[in-house]
Specification:
Elements (H helix, E strand, L loop, with lengths): L9 H13 L14 H6 L7 E4 L6 E4 L1 H7 L5 H13 L3 H14 L4 H64 L24 H23 L3 H12 L4 E4 L5 E3 L16 E6 L1 E5 L5 E5 L2 E3 L1
Antiparallel strand pairs: 1-2, 3-6, 4-5, 5-8, 6-7
Helix pairs in contact: 1-3, 4-6, 5-6, 7-8
């Protein structure tokens, strides 16, 4: 006898499996289909709904944020918070905070389960930020000390150069010679410079610019408006820094200055959704530190 074809569509089968997993013991083995479209949907690499680990008796499975979002509305009230907590526990700190924010917005009663995780995640993120700031401060202090030492070295070399000129002058006069009317030309190595002239100078300016733009990128990402404005002012004080595009501006797409996006070709008209930054090297060359983000 022919096997009767299931009347349940694949979308419903996916949700049923997700609901089954949501109600299962997290420490117990969970059996997934061995093959077929259902397994493909659950483990789709582009947007997995389930994460699987181990095999056989040690096999474990857990919902991903995407899988949870698909069935959250079908869970009984008292299960939503605990299931969300289990998912959040398996996420890296920043993803964990983002997931908890989304969950609290959609299901405020989950706060009791998620508050301890959020508190710990914020503490970890704060500690990491403080470590980064301290490391940045030490790095900048070291570079400042190095530049100060370099300035002193150049001053000493300048004094040496002037002393040699004076020595030659005295020798010339002692030998009965006369001084020319023209003043001696200064050695260009010791002339004050308004722009970087050495590779170390250029590397230093580029390093400062990259660090400032990295902090600016974080401020934009986390919508820290005050910090963003402060960093933009600081970036503007770095010589030869140029903004790439203004938000809302319509321009021609340029792969060199704009982050690539699906369906875009050179010279397509696009709108800038987030500015970028570049550092001019000379009149004809520049270095793109952060590409602008654009969309059609």
């Amino acid at each position: 006898m022919a096997k009767k074809k299931s009347t349940v569509d694949i979308g419903e089968q996916v949700q049923q499996k997700l609901l089954e997993l949501a109600g299962a013991d997290a420490e117990a083995p969970f059996k997934l289909p061995s093959k077929g479209e259902l397994l493909g949907r659950l483990l789709d690499v582009s947007k997995p709904l389930i994460i699987q680990s181990g095999k056989g008796a040690t096999s474990r499975a857990s919902l991903t944020p995407a899988g949870f979002a698909l069935v959250r509305a079908r869970l009984v009230e008292e299960k939503v918070g605990p299931v969300a907590r289990l998912i959040a526990e398996g996420l890296p700190t920043e993803q964990q905070i983002e997931f908890i924010q989304t969950q609290l917005a959609n299901h405020p009663t989950s706060a009791l389960e998620l508050e301890p995780l959020l508190k710990a995640a914020v503490q970890r993120l704060t500690a990491e930020t403080e470590r980064r700031v301290l490391a940045e401060r030490k790095s900048m202090e070291l570079r400042a000390a190095s530049r100060a030492a370099l300035t002193r070295c150049l001053e000493q070399l300048d004094q040496l150069g002037r002393a040699r000129v004076e020595e030659l002058r005295e020798l010339l006069l002692t030998a009965g010679g006369t001084l020319p009317d023209e003043q001696p030309v200064s050695d260009p190595r010791f002339a004050p410079q308004s722009k970087p002239v050495t590779d170390d100078d250029r590397d230093f300016r580029r390093d400062v610019a990259e660090r400032l733009v990295s902090s600016w990128r974080d401020a934009v990402r986390y919508n820290k408006i005050e910090a963003k404005g402060y960093l933009e002012t600081a970036i503007g004080n770095v010589g030869a820094m140029r903004r790439i595009g203004e938000e809302g501006e319509t321009v021609s797409f340029d792969r060199e200055s704009h982050a690539d996006a699906p369906g875009l070709s050179p010279k397509d008209r696009v709108k800038v959704t987030r500015s970028g930054w570049r550092l001019d090297i000379d009149e004809d060359r520049y270095y793109v530190i952060e590409k602008a983000i654009v969309a059609k």
